[in-house]
Amino acid sequence: MSKYFKLITVEDVYVSVLTAKKVADANGVWTYQKVEKSFPHTGSVLMDAVGRILLETGCWETGDFAQKLEVDVNDFRGAVRVLTGMPIADFVLAYRMRQAKEWLACTDLSIREVARRCGMRFSEMLSNRFRQREKMTPQRYRKLHRPSNFRELYIWK
Known about the structure:
- The chain is mostly helical and 157 residues long.
- Helix content is 55%, strand content 10%.
- The protein contains nine helices and three strands, in the order αββααααααααβ.
- A three-stranded antiparallel β-sheet has the order 2-1-3.
């Protein structure tokens, strides 16, 4: 299957949660650069729509995606599996974990708030899924991946 086309990944549809990052230009002058919020095009109308729904909502359920897209839920499941190589539930979880990692590494938001922003009702839900996927707690991930000067480097809402 992937011999003929590239599978669509979470990174192909992901849009950063940050609004700006501090970067140095060629002369070493540091300025804030706006983070591009335009949605990347994957080459698939369906996956572009899924990406937009993930960005704009806390949607988790396959039926909710299918309803928003006005497609049959079984057709939707099959199409996503063909395009991504994984079930929609796994794709959504991977997207939400990507968001959580960015929130954890770049902000001082509480674990509870990170979970909420990723569409999870409880911080325990984030912690459990994080441990399963990343083999560490969200707190440990933050400790390993957040620079001490993160407040100077990133802007978020």
